[in-house]
Design goal:
Blueprint: H1 5-28, H2 40-66, H3 76-106, H4 111-138, H5 141-188, H6 202-206
Helix pairs in contact: 1-5, 2-3, 2-5, 3-4, 4-5
Length: 234
């Protein structure tokens, strides 16, 4: 399901903020670990996008330098505004854009760096589109054709990067779901130990076991002597 640009902005900002908080919390809890290595397919995909973007940026600079805006068939105000846009584009292409590309090259799957570059391409696309439109209306055919080709290259790089940002965002959202579950589990602490029933046998230990009383058998009674028999009278 496609994500609108406003929702994408909010989601990326949330992920960046959460990504800054979780490592600090994990460090406080004594949880450490190096980030997983970036997959080759992801790096290869990014290299293709950035290579196309760098080639387009070089072509844009060359064609903007060749444009003879002062000869366009329009009023002075339009010429001044177009020239100001061209100067702004040149500054971005020569300074801001290369720095963002380098940053993303160093952190290929960093959502913040990816979105930063995407937003910059959005701004370039809007301003450059205005210059191309003016070239088509007031400039030469060759100027318009070369700038239109650059516009197509910029749009292609912008679209590819936007799709990558959306995919990275979806992956990060799944990762955050797992992190939330882990944080919740760790914050709850270990389960309480099972209760033990203790029998107080202190008194029993102090008292020696009672001795059994042995009853001695009574001696047998001796037979009673018979009374003497009186002797007969003589």
């Amino acid at each position: 399901m496609a994500i609108s640009q406003n929702n994408l902005v909010r989601l990326v900002l949330f992920i960046v903020a959460f990504g800054l908080i979780v490592p600090k919390w994990a460090s406080a809890q004594g949880i450490t670990g190096a980030p997983p290595p970036v997959a080759y397919t992801s790096v290869n995909e990014l290299n293709g996008i950035l290579t196309q973007l760098q080639q387009t940026a070089q072509s844009m600079q060359a064609n903007l330098q060749k444009a003879r805006i002062e000869k366009w068939k329009t009023d002075g105000a339009t010429k001044r505004q177009t020239q100001a846009n061209v100067d702004s584009l040149k500054r971005n292409l020569q300074s801001a854009l290369p720095d963002m590309i380098t940053e993303l090259n160093n952190k290929p799957e960093d959502t913040g760096a990816s979105f930063k570059l995407y937003r910059n391409l959005d701004a370039l696309y809007d301003v450059f589109g205005s210059v191309v439109e003016s070239a088509g209306a007031f400039g030469s055919k060759d100027e318009f054709q070369s700038l239109s080709n650059d516009m197509s290259g910029l749009e292609s790089a912008r679209r590819s990067l936007g799709e990558r940002v959306q995919k990275l965002t979806a992956d990060k959202e799944e990762e955050l779901t797992r992190l939330r579950a882990q944080v919740k589990t760790l914050s709850a602490g270990p389960p309480p130990p099972p209760k033990k029933t203790v029998i107080d046998d202190t008194d029993t230990a102090k008292k020696p076991p009672a001795k059994k009383k042995v009853t001695k058998p009574k001696p047998a009674a001796s037979p009673t002597a018979a009374p003497p028999t009186p002797s007969p009278t003589k």
